[in-house]
Amino acid sequence: MTGKHYREADEQEPEVTEPVVVRDRRKIDPETGQVRPQATEEASATAEASGPELGATTVDDAVGVQSDLEKQLAERTADLQRLQAEYANYRKRVDRDREAVVAAAKASVVNDLLPLLDDLERAEAHGDLTGAFKAVGDKLVAGLQRAGLEPFGGEGDPFDPSVHEAVQHSTSPDVSGPTVTTVLRRGYRFGERVLRAALVGVTDHEPGAETPVDASVEGELPVEQLSNENQQ
Length: 232
Known about the structure:
Blueprint lengths: L2 H9 L25 H14 L10 H52 L1 H12 L5 H17 L1 E4 L11 E9 L6 E7 L1 E4 L2 E4 L1 E8 L17 H9 L1
């Protein structure tokens, strides 16, 4: 071996060996018989890693944020539903008011034509409504009836003070109750609205003559027969 080889051998680092460490992982000390503190710490760490104990609760920030968003969404949905219901009620109220205004306008126009209908009815009763005038009158009456005009108040109808105005009154045994027997002016209604009450004559029930009651009592003889027997 030359001097060069000795120098290279001297320059090499010495080999280092790590000491062998033996760790006792037993949780119970064999000499004292007690649980080692290291085992208690490991058990606590294991419990924390596994989850909460029985009956304990955990709070997750992500879950809390999601719950707030769901709450806000529910509130906004309720507000939207309330607005939709209010708008639907508003539409119904507007439509109902518009129909009422239209019906009132029609009823006002028809009410102004009632005197004309009275004239046509009187002319027809006297036989003066003939020819072209009768055709025009029939078309007018038919058009008003299609629009909703309805006449009422006929002879033989039961008397109703809400639609009949009685100007004459009489009694008769031929009727069972207050009955319209004379129509002086016909009444009219438009839809559910009474435009004019009918002027009528009313006949009330009058009980007939009562049948005389026989004064004789069963088992007793009439007075004439008693007189004859006394004379004999």
